[in-house]
Each structure stands twice: as C-alpha cells, then as structure tokens.
Amino acid sequence: MRVHHRHVIYVQGYDPRGLAQYYRMFRTELRKAAQLYDLRATIDRPTGSEDGSMASWAIETRGADWQTRTSYDFLRWEDLIKQDLTAPVWRTVLQALAIYCRLIFGGIIARFWRAHWRFATFISYPYFVLLNEVIWSALAAWGTAAVLAHFGAPATIAAIIAAAVFLAALSMLLKTTEKRTYALYLMSDTIFTWQFAHRQRPDWDRRIERFARHLVEIARTSDADEIVVVGHSSGSFLGIEILARALEMDADLGRHGPRVVLLTLGGNLPIVGFLPVSAPFREHLRRLSLEPSIDWIDCQSRKDVMNFHPFDPIAGHGIETGAGRRNPTIVPVRFRDIVDPAHYNRFRWQFFRVHFQFVMANDRPHAYDFFMIVCGPLPLRQRVDDPTAALAAVMAERQNTAQPAAGLEQQPLPGS
After folding, report:
1. Which pLDDT does position 292 carry in this prediction?
2. Which of 371, 358, 228 is nearest to 294 (CA)?
C-alpha cells in the first residue's frame, strides 16, 4: 500500500517556544531529510485557525516513483505555557517543592526509579540545583549577619537583613542561571503535570476538547489514507487524552474513513499515570490497548533521560488487559544508528537536544525516520512491521537487499 495523502496532528510537549521556532526547525530538518534520501520536498507557510489554537501547513514530497501530500496540524499550547512561566519565582519554587515532597513521601519517585532511574534522576535535578543555590544564598546571608554583628548591629536587625539577603540572593541566582539550568522551567513543568493530573487545569481541558473535536471532524471528512496523531514528550499523555476523548465523541473513529494511528515519541506517561488520582487516565490507556481500530506505536530511546526506556505503557501501569491486548507496539530507537558519530558526540550530553532527536532529521538512512513517517510513501503500521521495505521505498538501490534494516526492533506484547 502507498500513501498519497497523510494527515498529521502534532501534539507538542510543555514547550514555550511554540509555532515560530517549531516551524523553522521543521522546515530546516525537512530540507536535510530530502537531501539524505535525494527527494524533492516543498512546504507551505503555516496558516492559523480562527481561534489561534492551531496552525497548519502542507508538504509535497516526491521520490523516484512516488509522491505524497501531507497535511500537518500543529496544536498550540505556548500561550498557556508562557502564562505559567510568568508566575513569581517564590510561588514556583514553593509549589514545585511541595509537589516533589509529595512525590517522595507518596512513593512515586521510588516508582520512577524502578521504572527508569535516569528519568527519576532527571526529575530530581532542579531540586539539586535549588539546594546548591540555597547553600550559596545562605552563605551570603551568614556573611552579611557576621559583618553586621562585627559593627555592633542589634541581633534582630541583623537577622532581618540577613533573611532579606538570603531571599534576594536566591531569587537572583535562580533567575540569572536559568538559561543554563532550566530549573524554574522544569519546576513549572512539574506543577503543570500535577495540576493536569488532578484536573485543576480547565484551560488545558477546554483546548483538549477542541482538539478532540478537530480529530473527529478530520476523520469524518478527510480523504487522507491515514491520520497520524504524534505526541512528543508531554505530548504523549496529551495525545492520549485527545484521542481518548475523540473516541468518546465517536466510538467508530477508526472504523470509517482514514486509519488512525497514535505515535508517541519520547513519552513520559508515568508522570501522570503513576499518580493515584489518575485512574481516568489509566482507563484511557487500557481502552487504547484493546481498541482494534486504532494503531499505537510507542518509540523509546535509552539515551533520552526525559522518557522511560524500557517501559511498557500498559503493564508498567499495572493495567490488566488479558488476551485482548493489541497496543502499543514498542519500538526502541538507538540514536547512534541514525546520527553521524561526530555530530552525535557534539550533543549527546545536551539532554533537551537529545530529546528532540525523535522529531529531527536523520544523518543516516534508517527505518526510524520522523520525516519519512510524516512524508514517506508507506503507512506507519507497514513501516513498523516491515522496516526493510520502509527503506527500500525511498532508496532504490536497496530494493534487492535481503538484509533487514538495523535498529528497528519491535518488543513483543506480553504473551505473544
């Protein structure tokens, strides 16, 4: 089967950069992908929806004997995220610290550690930054108190001034080092995730409802061969929420019109799913795991500390499905196989850059290739099931090879 028209709905994570920077990155990476595979690709400028909640563009991609048209919807959250980031520093720190303590004493951090120690370390990282800056601020306050005492200042006055110095120094350190540490941003992300799981974000819920209606409408009216809902990072659990609500609106969503595929990349589902309050979310996972009309592909990478690998999104949440389970198909992605060594070594310790490799162009032809998933001639389900054919479809010189494509290994479902 060849895809002539594909509709992609991209669900970004908790990223304030938004449309302008994402579109520039997408256009640049599309050009690299076209050069890698000797393709011809054109891309339109984005057009916004009436309410400003999404932007769309079209891509035309041509190979030696195939052509695809991709309709691409970028779902926008950056206005909501930027609003979160305007909160006072003291409020962000106190809220995030309270949540982190609840995660510790509730046993959630321990569950993170058992599921993927790298992610547990990563989510703890901003609090190590905070502790370090608290120590430096305390030293500044102690030095101030010592100087005041030396000049005979009353103890009460010295204590008040030292406390003010401590708070001012801590706020200054957090703000001035933010571009390198991202500590405040990551704390805001933690606060959002906690509030979202506890259904305390009606602004996000309204937008999810709007996007779910959009998905239902596209499935009813589009002439696309497949619809791919892409959830990257926190977009993984947001994409699941959108798809689950779309199924509530239309139980036959995947049974009429285009085939619907959920593609989660670098997912961090346990940050919502492990919370005791998240029973509705775990029920959404269970439904998708059993739904025969929807394909769910979950791509994970060991190198990415911001996702869980290896992790089964269903069994890992303690969800019982029995013999009827059919989703997700878990696909490990090894970035060393898709990026040139010299290039890889330049960013391998830049954790955000590594995290975004899922949605950036390859340096090497490979069965996992985001831009071939978006623009290539094969349906995503077929690409995952037959990675050799996926490469052969865009590289004529590999048509006759008998060697399987390296690096795209499916993890079998329990009991299979």
Report:
1. 94
2. 228
> Which helix (H) or strand (E) element contains residue 228?
strand 226-232
25: tokens are: 């990155």
Could you tell me which of 316, 206, 311, 219 has the C-alpha nearest to residue 264? 311
**Alpha helical stretches, state H, 201-294:** 202-221, 235-249, 270-273, 279-290
Q: How many Å from the N-terminal Cα to the C-terminal Cα in the chain?
A: 26
Q: Diameter of the chain by CA atoms?
A: 88
User: What would the two tokens of residue 55 be?
Assistant: 């932007």
* Mean pLDDT, the chain cut into blocks of 10 residues (416 residues total): 95 95 97 94 96 97 93 97 96 98 97 95 97 97 95 92 96 96 97 97 97 97 97 98 97 92 98 98 97 97 96 97 95 96 94 97 95 96 90 59 41 40
Reported in sequence order, the residue ranges of 307-401 that DSSP labels E, i.e. its strands, are 329-332
Q: Write the DSSP symbol of residue 125.
A: H
What pTM did the predictor assign? 0.93
**Under a CB-based contact definition with an 8 Å cutoff, are residues 41 and 31 in contact?**
yes
222 burial (CB, 10 Å; 0-12 / 13-18 / 19+) is middle
Give the phi and the psi of residue 309 in degrees, each rounded to 5. -150, 130
